[in-house]
Every structure is written in structure tokens, then in C-alpha cells.
Records
---
Amino acid sequence: MVYLRLRFWQCLKNKVRFAASIASMSIVNNMKWLRRIFKRHQASIQKSSEMKISPQHAKNMLMMIANTREQELSCDEVHGLLDQYAEMALRGENPAEFLPLVHYHLDMCPDCREEYEALVRMLEGSNEFE
């Protein structure tokens, strides 16, 4: 599973080549394409026995690839803006209006969304003590 995540993120980082080959295919063709890739390496996968992928996980990865945009923020860039985004939300403002790329990243990245939710809980807790 770790290898799959690493490989997936390497492919996303190199999305000029990878996304161009996928962009012209439909979701059904993408699923077939992914299955072919995994079948080719099935022998090596079984030997390492750590890389098991469910159809739902493959579908989620394809949706993430299909939803990539020309302009995106990295996790590091989002972490730098997360405090401002959370404070806007707590003040009742619409942070998605002011920081749309951060909002999009939080929709797509479960790790950053988890960080955001933890930060909001901490800020709400600190507001209770004031």
C-alpha cells in the first residue's frame, strides 16, 4: 500500500505526461487501463504481497487524477494558509470565496482536511477559554 501511494503521488507530480495520457480517456477506459497495469505487475505484486488495491480505491484515485487542475496548491502551501482559512471560517466569513485554491485542495486531500478539522477544533476550544 505504501508503494502504491508513493507511485500514485509520483505520477501526480509528473502529471504533464501522466495526465495527458489519461485526460483523453473516459472513466471506464481509465478503469480498464488501471486494471491492465495492475495485471501486468501481478506477479511482482503477489511477491511483495503488500500492494492490494480494491476497486473503490482505484476509483478514488482515478477521480483524484481526473479532478486535477492547471493551478493547484501543494500540501505545504495549504499548510501555510490553513490558519488563515480556519480563522475566516470561525469568524463566519466564507473562506472558499477568498481562498478558493485552499478550499479545493481541502476537498481533494483527506490528510489536509484532517489537519484543518483538527485546527478548527483547537481554535474552537481556545475560544471557549477566552
---
Amino acid sequence: MKTTTFSMHKLTGYRQIIFALSGGLLLCGFNFFDNALDWRNAEVRNGKIYSRGENKTFSGKVTNIPSQNIFRDKTGYKQLSGHTGVEQINSYDMDSLCDTEVNEGIIDGNIVCTTQSGAPHIKTTFSKGAINGSFTMYSYSRGVLIAEASFKNDLLDGVIKKYDEKSEKMISRQSVKNGKPDGRYERWDPETGILVAEANWKDGQLVSKKEMDRQGKLASEVNYKNEQLDGYYKNSDINTHVIIEANYKNGKLDGLAKNYSLETGKLLSEINYKNGTFDGSAKLFDAETGKTIVDGNYRDGFPDGGIVSINPKTDEVIKKGVFSDNKFTGTVVGYTEFPGLTEIDLKRLGKIILIYDELFTYKYTDGIMENEREYLEVKAAVDKIRKCLDLVHSYQNDPPEKRLPAIAQCKHESGGASSVQGTSNDSGGTAKPTDATSGSAEAKPQAPTRESLCSGTEEVIFSCSTGEKMVSVCQTNASGAVQYRFGKPGSAIDIALPENPASREGVVKGTTSFSVGGGSYIAFTKGDTRYVVHDYVGQRGEDTGIDVEGRGKKPITIQCVGLPIGNLENNIPASIPVDPQSMRQ
């Protein structure tokens, strides 16, 4: 076979022609080898890239574009910063320099962004100005992979994966469709790899969510329907140390709700709800012994039927009776305690301390306390004793030479050893103190009335007696404005907040929870002082009154006397905003 060979000098003519053509094209403005534009020499007009001073849009490679100039207005990229439902990527706000292809002034092609050290930061692809296809992001500090995603026309679409920068393990995975979470979400502990959270989304709405502790044990489970709680609910609250198990329907508690101790797992309460209000049996249990301490019933949010309350330490019945039309008929046994005193102090104080272990029985008929005046006499005596015992307690760390004079002064200010001679049980166990106010009839507190400080045209949200005076929360107009009032019935009001009855300024509502029980409150603020009207149910039954709180001041609590009028949980208007400090946010 005959072969033909060409020596290099025979190609010289062809090469001369090629170079001549190439040189001519370059002179005409074409460059097949490098048509790059540095961002410093570019300008953007009407969303398109131009070489500075040129009237024609640029096509070719643009270098050193700050990454935020490219991505900051992209919807899907902004979602990666942790917007609703999408896992956050830590390097979102870090800026880097990008090289990309541009066609007629629009980014179109691959993009590679690098850090100042030249390490990769972002890699993705644009199509006609929109992010399309795979997207990867690397740690700005270490250059390791921290996120993978995919886009469709600037929207996240596909699976988002996030990696821990330190361990380089995948720590979350989430499905997204058309920019909305849709499908399964999972999160793992970066150190152990144990699954700690999982959720299901549908078209951007959360359907269910579970969270586990670091050992993989279920800590909370929440279900939703139409963005409202619906179905089984479980939550471990580290603030109240309570595990809550309940059922929701259309965003409201419905059915049996149980509270457990977070530390011991013991049952604390069983309460039935219907459409968000108490309805059915309600039981409270002692956190230590597990004994039933309150056994009652509700209907439409109000106590209804029989109720029994027991002291878990003594097994004595401290409340027993029947509720009908929100009025109580029966007996309630209350007692006072003076903690912090030594046995020696108690002996030295003599007979005035007898009330320490004595009980007073409140008698009610149709919601009215029958022996209210006797209670007020006992309360006046107890208040005196408490005041002097506080004085004694303030000397508890001092030597006897200082403590003994304080005890003597306490006896003197309380009327001596005969101030409270103990109690008698002549009237069904009712305590009857003798000479509770040192024989001065004028000094005895007046029995409170069952009226309120609201006018006849206003709705009584809540009202109770505090002894000689009364506190009331009145709804002042149909739009839901309320006013706090404190004063003596029939006299000028001492405090009214807000000062303008039609204003809602400084008024918030909320709920709180204890290890056993909880309740509702409404707070009124003026300057640095906050007046909190509360209606709680705790281990010892009802706790209603007013807490006066001030910045830098010791809080003051004024307890209600007897049963209040109204129910804060059901009566506070829906238009009152929720307190940010409330457990419901």
C-alpha cells in the first residue's frame, strides 16, 4: 500500500492561511479562545449584564461575581436560610466569588463559586437566569460538603440533604416539591447518628411530627390537620417537668388528657375535655405517693356534680360537696403553715402557735360561705401570727440573745399567749378563735359581699372579695375591652386599669402550669407595676387572687376570700392578646 507523507514545510501554507483567518476574525472582535469579562468591568442594566460602556448585552464567561449578587433574590436559595419548613444551611450568608457562563446578558450555564482561598463553596447550574438542576454547597471554613439540593426554575424541588461540618455525616433529609415541603423529613444526632426527629409534610403543611431524645426514645408527637393540632398529642415540657398526653380536634383539646412527671413518670392528672373546655371527670394525683387528691367532674367548662379533695399526707378529706349551676354546697378544710421555724421556736411561742396544726372548715351552700365572718376572724389572727413569726424567722441564724427578744416581741404584738386559744369543733368542726383581734370589735374585718365593682351594664369577667375590699375584672364594651378594678364596694375605686375603659393597652392573658394543676390569668400593666389576677387549681384546690409585681420590688399576693364570681379560663374575651410569658404561645 502506498502511503503519502507530508513534511512540516508542506503544511506551512495551510498554517499561514489558518493564522491569517484567525487574526482577521480577532480584528473583527471574535475570540474563540477566551471571551471573559471580569465583574469589575461589568455593569447590570434592567437585569442584564453588559460590558461596561457597551450597548450590546454580554455573552461569554463572567468571572469574580460575588455570590450574593447571583443568589440573594432567588426564592429557593433564600429558603435554605431556614425559612418555614426547610432545613437551614449554615454557610448561607457567607459570600464567595463565582465564575459563570452568560448568554445575551443572562446567566445561563454552570456556576462555580470559590472562597478567597480558592476552595469550592457553591456549584450549580442556571438555565435562562433561573437555578435548575443540582446544587451543592461546601463549608466556607473547611471546604467539606454541607448541603445537597435540586432546583427547578429557582424553586427547591427534590431532596435536600444537610451534612455536619465536623463529622461530615448526613444529619437531615427533606423532600420538597415546587418550593414547598412535601413528604418525609428526618434529622439525626450528628455524633451518635440516632434519629432524633421525623415529620411528614403535604403541599407545605405539616401533617405530623415526632421528636426523640438522644437515646432514640420518643419525647413528643404532634399531629396536624389544616394547620391545626388534630389527633394524638404528646409533649415533654422541660420547663414544667411534665409529660402531656392528649388528643386534639380542630386545634382544641378533646377527650382524655393525662399529665405525667417528667422525672418519675408517675401520673399527675387525668382531665377530660370537649371542644377545648373541661367536660367530664377530672382527677389530680399526688406526685410522690400517686394517691388521688382531687376527684371531680366538669360540664361545659364549669364544675358539676360531686367533688372530693384529699390531703395526701394525712388522707383527710379537705373538700367534699356538690357543684350545681357553678355553685358549691359542702365543706372545705383549710389550714395554715409556718415553715422555717425550729421545734424550739414553736415551743417558746406557746399557745399562739396552736393554729399551726388546726383546721378551719369553710361551709358553703349554693356558693355562699355560711361562716365567712368566722373565717375572717381566724384570718386576722393568723395574719398577726404570721407577721410576728416572720420576724422570728429573720433571726434564725442569730444567737439566742437576739432570738429570744424577738420571740417576746412577737408574743406581745400578737396579744400574748391568749391571742388564739386554739379551735373548737362545736359547729361541725368549724374553728372559732376567741379574742382574735384583742377584743376590739371595730378592728375586725368586715365580711365581703357577693357583689362586684362592675356596673349593671358591664359583664363580670371575674370578681372576688379580699376582705374589706374587692377586685373585679369587668368587660366594658362589646368589642372585648376589659378593666381591672380594686377598691371597697360602695366607695371610690382605688385602682382602675387601663384608665380608659375602652383601651386594651397593657392588658394580656395567659395560662400557667404546675407539677399538679394550673390555670388562667389576666394581667394589667401600668409603668413598672403589673397586676396579675389569677384563677388556679393546685394540689390543695383553688388558688385565686392578685399578684402585684414591680421591677426591683418584692411581689405581693392578695388572696381571694371564698369562691369568686366568674371563671377566667372561659370568660376572658378572645380579643385580649396572649402574654408572651404564657405557656400557650
---
Amino acid sequence: MLFYLFAYLIASFAVFGVMAHVAGENDTDQELDHYSGLARDNPFLATVLAVALGSLAGIPPLAGFMGKLFIFIAAFKASLYGLLAIAIIGVVISIYYYFGWIKAAFFETGAPSGSVNPAPARTPVGVSARLALAALALCSIFSVFTRARSAPGCWHAEGGVESDVPSGLSRSRKTANEPDEDVGLHLNSLLRLSASGLQ
């Protein structure tokens, strides 16, 4: 749970950082057309945007994928199949919209003629902003490997799953000697807290 929140946080910061530069100095209203040709005009911003949106969508091997995978495994082991189905549908819908954003940045050359709200002049990316956005993008890429190494017991020999739980809930591990009901109670609380952030 905490890893998922961390992955979502850094990806959201990266996206809003790109949006702040595309919006221009006056921070005017943004439209999807304003991102057309971003990869051609500023490959750095386009790359950061693609990495961050990919992490939010849960595309492997980005951090958002691992965070959602842990939550999906926890839902499956807790037999919360209805909630799991809703979460998967939400992920599919989010991928459609996120990739539409990436498509505009990488595969469209410019705003359509007669646009009601023309794109503002983009704010230049300073050194500090460039370093911050690069750090956020790298965290979205490499934190997944750190998480995979730090939790080798996610799957154990007994067939149980160790999942992250928020503060206030005990860490539960399913074994042959522990009742399934206790695990279900903990994971049910976890999934109710995290369901609103899956989309």
C-alpha cells in the first residue's frame, strides 16, 4: 500500500511538472491539443510525461505496475473478486486516456487549424526543474527494482502473500497454521482504503 502511494505520488508530481511548463507563464487553460508536437519541440518533457503516465497507468516495468500488482494479489488472496474486477476495469479505462495523452505528445505534429484555444508559449525548462523532473522519472523506473529486491518474501513456500498495510494495521502473513479469516479481515481493510486510488 505504501509503495503504491509512493509510486503514484512521484508520477503525479512528474506529470504536473510537465503541465506547468506546457501551460506557459500565465498558467492558462490546457487542452490536449496543446501537447501536440511536444516530443519534437522538447523531447525531455515528452519523455518525462510518457514515463509518468505509464507509471500511473500501471505499465511494466514502471513503479506503478508493481504497486498495482501487489494490491491485485492482495485482493485475489482475500477473495475480493468483485473489487478486483472493478479495479482492473478502471485500469483499462485509465490506460485508454493516458495513452491518448502520450499519442498527442509523440505522434501529432501540431494543433488542428481553427483551434479555439491556441497553445500558449511553453515555459523554458531551467536546470533545477530539469534535475527535479529527471529524478522523478528515474524514481518511477528504478524504484520498482528496489521494491522487488526488498520484498523477496512476497511469495513464500506456504503459498501465502505478504502485503503492505497502512499504519494502524498489523502486518499479516498467511501460513498453514493461521486461519484464513484473519488475513481476509486485514486485506479487506486494506483494499477499502486503496480502492479510491486505483483509477
---
Amino acid sequence: MPRASVLPSDELASQWYRAIGRLFEQLDARATGNARSPAAGPMRCVLIGLGCGHALLALLEHAMTRHAQGRAVELILLPDRWPAVADLNDLLDGACRAPPPGWDALLAGWPAGLPGLHRIMLPDPSGRRLPLRVLAGSGEPSGLLRRLAAPIDALAIIASHDPARPESHAGLLRALKTCCRPQTLLLHADAGALERDAIGRAAFDLHPAPSDPQGWPPDCAFASRRGLSRPHAADRTVAAPATVAVIGAGLAGSVCAAVLAREGWRVLLIDGAEHPVAGNRQPRLADHPHLSPDDNFLARLSRHGLAAARRWREPGIRPGRLQLAADAQEAWQQRRACEALGPNAATLARPVDAREAAQLAGLPTGRGGLWLPACEAHDPEMLARAWRRSAGIECRFGAPLARWSRHDDGWHLLDPQGRLLGRADALVFAAAGAVPPLARSRIAAANALAMSGSTARTFPDSLPGTLPELARLRGQSTRVRASGLEVLRCIVAGNGYVCPLDDGTALVGASTGAGGDEGPVDADDHANIARLARLIPAFAEPALPVQRLGSAVGLRFSPADRLPLVGQLVDDVALHANWRDLARNDREPLPRVDTVHVLAGLGARGSLWAPLGAELIADRLAGRMPAIEGDLLDAIDAGRFVRQRLRRTGAG
């Protein structure tokens, strides 16, 4: 902002306060008119660039004021440079203004700048929480904007652009066509003739200049996108107050119930077992984020999952994970994976040599690898019990669900004898391997209605379900004791892992295989002890015998692509009724069962993906923009396998 620098800071701050205020005034006017009902969803406002910080402070102040008054607002920030917390404080000092509400929460939750969309919840003066999303990454702002998974209502462009690269700025404005809804408001700083021309070509109509141009930021342009506003799928909400039934009280169901209860919904947590088991019966679950040189879906999702998990649990035991490299090739790949994360990679992972690895582990490892300081190990049963104790959750255990159907007063949940277990406005299926058959029970309910004469259409039970069958994977861990093992300081992993426990013993694992016996197998214990010897070579010596103390066997469920199933359930009744039409045009949205969601197929990363999936479901029910990028949302969509079958049908 070259021209802004010649103005006194307090004058410039006042100008930005008025300019951002004008954006919100027009949004208020539209919300109370016919263009868009306030019930349609939150006002989403994006700020591109930080400038000298005045626009950010003004945006926070106006948004907080409206949010405290009951108007739902979401803020999305795309910094043109990544500031540290100290830089944010410098912005505040330079603006000569009091900090806006929520400023301390913003500083406390400010992310380290790893690529991706970051979530911060800011408490407003009324105690409600305003969602702030911060999008970090390399590349042009236009590419980052396209990652947003919900339409925008207002946009302020503060970032200066390179006059020698006009195509960059033009690309940003073209990107607005895909991420802005009709009638989106635009405020553009330092808009000369070329910028105003580009704004017009991006389907925006410029507004007349203010009557007092001296009271506005220099060369500030206001515009609105042409067209009539239409509802968007991301705007749909569950009318409050509402009851949400969560089916399954394992790790996924318990954290989902806690997240939804925190949002203010009444939660009914149902499980067929009298004493639900969390975490595949393992005494510890160790964080296991994935890193890759191309920062692929798995890497990005596990990074989001680690951040979500840390928001929903207390600090665990022995923080830190040492991921050993098998050989020089893997060590090179690990270094490349860190480079892909940018200059702030060390907050998640950094390469270490064999000497530093031994210092971190407390025992010689004989090789280096990656140090992941944010990783922890937790007792899954303790986590699940703490989540279930959250205010607003009613637990009904020993109550198996057999059928569910829609009625005027919401969803009815029935046991095998047809007795009513409960009613709810929304459902979340989080019962691990039981989710696909539970989802298919709606076909049976539809056929029951047809038999009673309520509808003329029946469906054969042989029709494929909307959820894939989940692979049943068996895993066995072994608790061991050995002289010297009590000094182990962190999780050490490679082809397997060893996790220190509080009593000086360690958990080693884990074997993996398809289905099979749920009881312990001696061969798997021996394989785990061999893993310990490979990770910490000292325990391969006969002088340090390893004593087996016990085994834990758990079952994990995963789809074929090893990514979780998260999102709204596809309506199997409507799907099969309209299969041919959907197969002919695979761009048509899939029919969904209103207010019914799935959280399943978490595989070996349930401790990371369960909190992330729970937050995404809460976002959807509340009508908020999901706190992950749009392509990741598609990658874990519960309907992705249906889409694949439709494309194969259409191609055939």
C-alpha cells in the first residue's frame, strides 16, 4: 500500500474502519431484505493481505460487534506474508487502536504457517465464538482462493500486486468468479484504472465513489458481483435448538458427541454395548501423521487431524515422535517432505541425524530420521470417558440400533424389537464397521413403507449400498519390559513403533492383517519384539532380554483408498430411483439424506481423524465453511465411491 504510508496511522485506521464498516452495512441491508435470509447461513468475509494491519483490525471489530448481536459471521484471512505473533502485536501497536474483542484468542491460536486452512475460534463479548479461518500456502492468491469450500459474501483485497506481473492480479480477480456468490461485495485498495478495468471484466459492477473521498483509504474501489443470489449447499443449517443422535460410542462417536455438545446441541449417544470400547482396545494410541514430498491428500489430512486432535484433548504423555529413516533414500525423502512444508516446517517435523535422534530418544537408534515434536500418545479409554462427560450428552448404552426412519418430529431410532430408542433432528453414524449395514437399513425402512401402501416404489435388497464395505484389519500390540527401556523418552517409530508407558514398560506394535481371530497370537508378539530390536538395536542383544507382559488386539476398519468416510450420507432411495440420469451427468450433485452424516473408516489414524471429522460435521450442521480445503473435503466425502460407480456406469 504505497500511498497509505504517507498518511498518519490514526487517520488511516479511521479510514479503514469506515470502509470495512460500509461493507458490513451493505451486508446487513441485504440480510434483512429479500436477497438472502439471515437464516441462510453466516456472512463470510475474506481479507486478502495484511497491509499495515488497519483493515484486519477493522474487520475483527465490525465482525465481533455483529456476532455478539446474534448475526452469524465467518472471517477468512489470506495473508500476503506470514506474520509471527510478534508481528501481529506490532500491527496493533502501529494502528494506535485498542485491541478488538477476541484479539488475545487470535494470538493464542495463531498457527505456525504450515500450508493449509487453519481454524481459530474467537470469543465475542457475548461469549459466542466467531470462526476465523487462516489460509496459508505458497503460490498465487487465486489458487489459494479456489481451495475454499464455501461461497464468499464480502472480500477486501489489501495485498499489493507486482505491476510487472499484471496476469497475477487478473488471475486473482478471475478466481472470484468461482468462489464468490452473486452480489458478493468487493473492496479493493489502491485500485487504479487497470485494476478497475479488471474488476469490471471479473463480472463486478463498480459502485459510485463516496461523497467524501478524503474519508476513505486512497484509491479504494467498491463493487458488487452481478447476478441474483442463490442458496448454496454450504448454507444449510439445523434449526436450533436441536437434538443430534450419535450412533456408536467408541473414540469417533465420543469425540463427535463432545464437539456437537460444545456447539450447543443436545446429544444422544447410543451404543449397542453395555460398556463401549474405544481405541481398538489398545492401552495407548500414538499420533501418526504422514509426510510426503508432494504433500499429498494423506499428508494434508493427517496434518489437519493432528491440529484438531490437539484442540480436543489434554496434553498426553511423553510428547514427541521420532520417525526413523530406513535408509539413505528414505532420509532424502523425509528432507524433501519437510522442504515441501515451507519455512515453518520445524513446528511439525525436522530432520535429525543419528546422534540427535539418540539424544531425543534417550537410547541409541543407530540412524536418524524426522523429529515430530507435536505428536503424543494417549489412553483412548480415558479420552472417550472425558468426552462422554461433556455437558449436554445423554448416553444410552446396551441399546442396539436396528432401523431408523424419518417422521414429522424428526428421525426415529428403533431397536431390533421395534421399540423407540430416541428421536433426533440429525444423525451421525460413527459405529466403525457397523456403519455400512446401518446405512443400508434405510432401504428396508423404505420397503416397509411400500408394503404398508405409503409409497408405490420398492427396492431390491441386493442393490449396492451408498457406503463401501470396510476392510476389517486386525492389529496386535505387545507390552514389554527390558532393562534400560525405562529411559525411553519419546515414541520411536519406523517399521512399527515403541511407545514408553508411565511404569517404565513400553508398548510395541503393531502387527497388521486381514480380519481373523480377536485373541492374541504368539507369533505377533514375537514379531513385535523383533520390531523393537530393529528400532532400538540394543534390545537385539541377548544381554538385554525382553519380557512379554501382555497383548492387546484391536480391529480397525478402512475403505479401499485408506481415507476416512466423512460427510453427509447419500440417499440410497433417491439414488437408485434416479441412477440413469445421474450416470449420464456426473456433475449433478448426489442426493443426500438431510441431516444424516457419517464418520467411519478411520483405519489406523482414528485418534487424528475422529476429532477432525467431528469438527467437519459440526461445521456442516451449523452452516459454517468447513475448516479444510475443498479438494480434501471431496477426497473424504462419504459419497465418493458412489460417484466412482456412476462414472463407470456412464463410461460403459
